[in-house]
Amino acid sequence: MHSWNLLVPFAVGSLAAALPQSAQVESRTYGHDGGYEHQHSINAQLGPRPYYLIDDMDDSPLKEKLQSCSEGPFHTTEMAIGHRGAPLQFPEETKESLTAAARMGAGILECDVTFTQDQKLVCRHSQCDLHTTTNILAIPELAAKCTQNFTPAGNGTAARANCCTSDITEAEFKTLCGKMDGFNPKATTVAEYLAGTPTWRTDLYSTCGTVLTHKEYIQFVDSLGLKFTPELKTPVVAMPFPDPSSNYTQEVFAQQMIDEYKEAGISASRVLPQSFAINDLYYWLKAEPCFGEQALYLDEPTINVGGMAAAIGNLTIYAENGVKTIAPSIPGVLTTDANNKIVPSEYALEAKRLGLDIVVWSFERSGLLRDVAANGDYYYASFNSAVKKDGDAMVALDVMIREVGVRGVFADWVAGVVYYANCFGY
Q1: How many angstroms separate the Cα of 61 from the Cα of each of 47, 55, 92, 319, 398?
Q2: Domain 10-127+202-424: CATH class, spelled out
Q3: Which residue numbers delimit the GP-PDE domain (predicted)?
Q4: So where are the chain's domains?
Q5: What per-residue confidence (pLDDT) applies to 7?
Q6: Given pLDDT bands bounded at 50, 70 and 90, which one contains residue 68?
Q7: 81 and 88 in contact (C-beta within 8 Å)?
């Protein structure tokens, strides 16, 4: 099995200065591979949400166990992965979002990696989401460069826009403000279009999120002493970019992402590359085996074109070709039994049989679970019948960690995962 160290102190640099001296409990020094020195360790700060989720659970031995851990102590754990940071409440892929996830105890932080017009790497969940995750449409000179500038709703047609990182340079990208992801399809003005945050999230922290280049992300996460999980985003534009005669191919893009860690002196042991494209993993395994062996293959078994049986069969192929870790969506690893109890799926059991490590995505991404129970949701699709209220999320988490045996959980708000992992000693 490919092993990770799952419970580590929270090493912070600039964050520590904001804490009372009593919270700064340990000083550590690391060598060059760690890339940081004289950091301080602090207890993770979880806030009220895990307690709310646990209080909302049905009475059970699991609830009693979790309640017994209410006073901690809580520490950073690599079981908790900040999915785009902490986008339940902070603009995704921003420094503020990463800071919030780190403060709550995420041991691993994510940057989704795409490229700009001048082929510089930046953190965005999609190459073409700037119109919903930033204020680009409110900056006329940049909005004019979008693949599609804002078009208001009218005559039965929804408002639309399409702005890509590849439409602008790195310097132009850095002038943007990150905002909560969302848009208003009924908008007739740019201001209305940008005001589309789902009601179960918040704009409380959406003032001007600091967008990051990939190099800035590396520097910031390194300063915290945490691990990195960069996802190589499948380009929306045709590759090679910007035209067929260019030498900027998919493999060059994949290598560029790894090179930026090597240039920063980051040990491969701290980097968990990701991709939905299996050929990216095969490239890393061949060209950069130290990084490739750490890589996560992102899978969506519940929507595999060949069905779940094909997704399960593919696991053998991946394992035989050197893939160590599978990262499926949550519904890929959970199902229900005859008694409507949440249990591991056949996909999860086969991955374990093959010796593959499992990481899942994404916890706390679905809003109110009473609405999920009524209307369905992608992240609960395979066990929706067993979900009635918010506290049921902790039941699903328990099955994923203790029965499936996942090694990490991407979460939009990591506090619940951190609480659980510390309570059970992961």
Answers
A1: 23, 13, 35, 37, 12
A2: alpha beta
A3: 78-404
A4: 10-127+202-424
A5: 45
A6: very high
A7: no
DSSP 23-84: G--EEE---TTTT--SEEEE-----SHHHHHHHTSPSSHHHHHHHTTTT-----EEEEEETT
Using the CB atoms, write b or e for 208-231: b if 16+ within 10 Å.
ebbbbbbbbbbebbbbbbbbbbbb
295 is written with which tokens?
Answer: 């890589």
User: Which pLDDT does position 30 carry in this prediction?
Assistant: 28
Q: How far apart are CA 218 and CA 220, in angstroms?
A: 6
* Nearest alpha-carbon partner for 417 in 95, 74, 147, 79: 79
User: b vs e for 402-411, b when ≥16 Cβ sit within 10 Å of the residue's Cβ?
Assistant: eebebbbbbb
Closest among 81, 361, 107, 125 to 232, alpha carbons compared: 125
Name the helix (H) or strand (E) containing 126.
none
Whole-model pTM: value is: 0.91
From the number of C-beta atoms within 10 Å of its C-beta (0-12, 13-18, 19+), residue 154 rates as exposed
Residue 246 contacts by C-beta under 8 Å, 6 or more apart in sequence? Answer: 240
User: 325 near 2, Cβ under 8 Å?
Assistant: yes
pLDDT at 26 exceeding the cut of 90: no
Residue 393 has which token pair?
Answer: 């999320």
Residue 364: name the closest of 391, 401, 336, 325 by CA.
391
Residues 93, 165 contacting (CB under 8 angstroms): no
For residue 58 the two structure tokens come to: 């049905």
Token digits of residue 43: 């207890």
User: What's the Cα-to-Cα distance from 120 to each of 248, 262, 289, 306, 355, rounded to whole Å?
Assistant: 11, 16, 24, 36, 37
232 touches 115 (CB < 8 A): no
Q: Exposed, middle or buried: residue 15 (CB in 10 Å: 0-12, 13-18, 19+)?
A: middle
**Rounded Cα–Cα distance for residues 384 and 339 (Å):** 14
Q: How far, in Å, CA of 297 to CA of 306, rounded?
A: 18
Confirm if 341 and 399 have CB atoms less than 8 A apart: no
CA geometry: angle at 124 spanning 362 and 229, to 5°?
55
- Nearest-CA neighbor of 333 among 374, 298, 301, 370? 301
Task: Say how many CA atoms lie within 13 Å of 48 toward its Cβ.
Answer: 2
